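Follow-up to my post from last week.
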Amino acid sequence: DGGITQSPKYLFRKEGQNVTLSCEQNLNHDAMYWYRQDPGQGLRLIYYSQIVNDFQKGDIAEGYSVSREKKESFPLTVTSAQKNPTAFYLCATKGQDRSQPQHFGDGTRLSIL
Amino acid sequence: GQNIDQPTEMTATEGAIVQINCTYQTSGFNGLFWYQQHAGEAPTFLSYNVLDGLEEKGRFSSFLSRSKGYSYLLLKELQMKDSASYLCAVLNAGNNRKLIWGLGTSLGVNP
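User reply:
Got it. Predicted complex:
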């Protein structure tokens, strides 16, 4: 989706290291989301934010942290406490109206070194 | 609890019609979305249903029955490029912008 930029596309993490995944949007959407997808699995919600300076835990928040200091940006940090971080990470945004779908960035693929 | 069920895998032949079913049990309902996801890529939006009935968009149609907690995605004139995973997601009434996702149906299209 052209309005959502995730970087980097590929990321490698060393043992004991924290890494941060970037998500930037120019769609002027209030709501932003982070999902994790494992091979052959569905999307699992990590964190979401409905407004600047506010965010909530999703279903699998342990070992992750986020911030929402600006409307355009919702970075995700994968901490060393997340023991199995290898996955495909997707950032999404959603507009105000219920009929508006979530729009996704191209994703970041994180692997362990 | 909240639950969405879809078949894990389906196969069909190029040029045929295929129907992918989705049943859901959620606390409230604010609409149902279908997404397509090709391997290694992000999901892309296909359709949204909030009222009962059929919504048609080119080769793709989506149906909803709220009383039965049931939806289907109908793909006509299948093409090889339709080989992908199809995800069903429900927007529940409790939180207007949080989706409950099914695990997806992997569709293989054979020549």
